[in-house]
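re the bet — no i am not wrong, look at it urself. input seq straight from the record:
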Amino acid sequence: TQAGATSNTAATGTNARMRVIIVGNQAGSAAGLQATAPVTIRGLVVDGFSRGIQLSAGSDGSKVMGTFVGVDRTGYEARANHGSGILVNARDVRIGSAARADRNLVSANDSAGISLGIAARAAIVQGNLIGTGRDGTSPLGNGADGVFVTGSREHLIGGEHAGQGNVIAFNRGNGVSLLSI
């Protein structure tokens, strides 16, 4: 954490204040963060990379919580990752949750906001803003789908209870796409 950073407490949008920013304008084809072991990523801004966050084989059980991916720290200016904002090829990954503090902002990436790859299994995507500005209503869409799923493998996107739904809007592709293999 960094002094002055705060988690989201807003019911709509996010009022989180981010202080740790990882910028990849000169990183070439690198991911902003690539995990090959279980990790919790919380309270960061990740922008300007080939892929913002990549959860690869071995990072089963990882979590991405309260993070901005593809935007600046204000949550209103595009700072696209050139591929997907979050790319998952691991099992039992959680991206956001019903808790307000866990809400991610995944917007303005050149490809899908969140991609659940062929090796991903049992991912949970809940409570996020995907394709909007920090207020949850301003357009800041991803360049493809909000959530792209390759070969559905028991994933849960949204849910039945308060706070589990994602706001998915303004993306150039579909809100959620399922590619059967």
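see?? DSSP finds no helices and 17 strands in the chain. told u. also The mean pLDDT is 95. so pay up
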